[in-house]
Amino acid sequence: MLNYKGYNATMATSNPTKVSFKAQMLLAREDAIIQSVNRLLAEKGFEAMTVDEVAADVGIAKASLYKHFPSKEDLAGAAMVSVMRRAQAFLDALPAQASAMEKLRSVVQWTLGLKLAGEMPSLPSQNSKLRTTLMGNKDYMDGLMDVSDRLGAWIEVAQAQGALNPKFPPIAVLYTLYARACDPVLEFLKMGELYSNDEIIALVLDTCFDGLSARGR
Amino acid sequence: MLNYKGYNATMATSNPTKVSFKAQMLLAREDAIIQSVNRLLAEKGFEAMTVDEVAADVGIAKASLYKHFPSKEDLAGAAMVSVMRRAQAFLDALPAQASAMEKLRSVVQWTLGLKLAGEMPSLPSQNSKLRTTLMGNKDYMDGLMDVSDRLGAWIEVAQAQGALNPKFPPIAVLYTLYARACDPVLEFLKMGELYSNDEIIALVLDTCFDGLSARGR
DNA sequence: GTCTATAGGAGGATAGAC
DNA sequence: GTCTATCCTCCTATAGAC
After folding, report:
1. Per residue in B157-209, pLDDT tens?
2. Phi, psi (deg, nearest 5) at residue B14
3. Looking at residue B10, what is its pLDDT?
4. CA(A61)–C1'(D15) in Å?
5. Closest residue in B to A178 (Cα–Cα)
6. Does any strand C atom come closer than 7 Å to the Cβ of B130?
7. What does the buried/exposed string (b/e) look like for B33-43 if buried means 16 or more CB atoms within 10 Å of the residue's CB?
8. Which of A161, A177, A209, B176 is the most exposed place for a label (fewest CB within 10 A)?
9. Do B169 and A215 lie within an 8 Å CB cutoff?
10. Which domains does chain B have, with CATH numbers?
């Protein structure tokens, strides 16, 4: 099904093949833009990324970018919607027979992998203009709510099953999981070049769920 | 003992009282600058903080700022040196009879408190110009090395004593502790207004050392 | 919708008088 | 060393031709 954005009167009066082709070209280009933005956001962060860079990376003029997205903030928003969709797809694909705790671990592992692969956009939490744009982005907010609801449900189940420590409020657990997406420990360890990506993920995953203290005893 | 920066030929030929007074005024002003920078860095981060803001906050002209510090990066560097000194003072003041593990917990607790009080400057890890300036700042690097060495020693002792999980490489533990200084979980929980500062600190401290998983069994 | 060219403005840094 | 007044670069966003 076409989304509303790509459907208009002009296209409705053209022949179906041409319409589809045009629409596909449009979406393909926007996908290319989002991919570039995503990578640049992961590499340098929102402030350091310039719109000129994005245009150059995509291979189009800056003015053309602004025909697709009205502002730099909207570019970042589109990238966030993109990762949110990927997250939703990942949640959908989790094996049904897995326990709630296993699912939570898998999600964090996926997040860390995305970050190490340089595909996790990093946004400043302070920029208010960006925050406003993001809060007004329905696609993003809907995705965020959906993901939060699903993770929240698993957190409560895992606590009821005694896998997750019940002394932590579920919201604190949720935030702690989200925070792994901006954990600088990954970069620190990567810079040291002492450990492979998989080892780094295992380390961070274990410190997150098991804690630093020795267990048992 | 006067540091080199404040000692010059003009002052050597003046009378001692006047010299001391002048020098104290100078240092007092630089302290005021650093305090402002520290607060603004904690509030908005390095990129969002403008030099105009700093000047306005201190109550002096922007050009005067640049007589004290040659660049915005050096301003941030001075703020980092300041917190590093505070950290060193905190380490010095820790009770000698405390165990290595207790000391590590105390340090993280102190860090979290500083962050919640809005006194922990937050710098981007990507800005290369800032990184270069910081790496070239001897005072900062010396302080960082000293703190890292002391924490590293405690980490090894705590592992030998079975308090800290020995499966984690000490360097990974060190980074994990440092990372608490930029953990967004604190802001998330503070924004929710459900928990007091002390409760937030306790939550983050426990997730850090005990992990999310249920213990024992 | 894509381009070239440019407006408009924020912000880091400096000149030069005192 | 402090000030006022600028300079100058960089970056977001837009105008206008095709």
Report:
1. 999 999 999 999 999 999 999 999 999 999 999 999 999 999 999 999 999 99
2. -85, 170
3. 41
4. 15
5. B185
6. no
7. bbebbbbbbbe
8. A161
9. no
10. 72-210 (1.10.357)
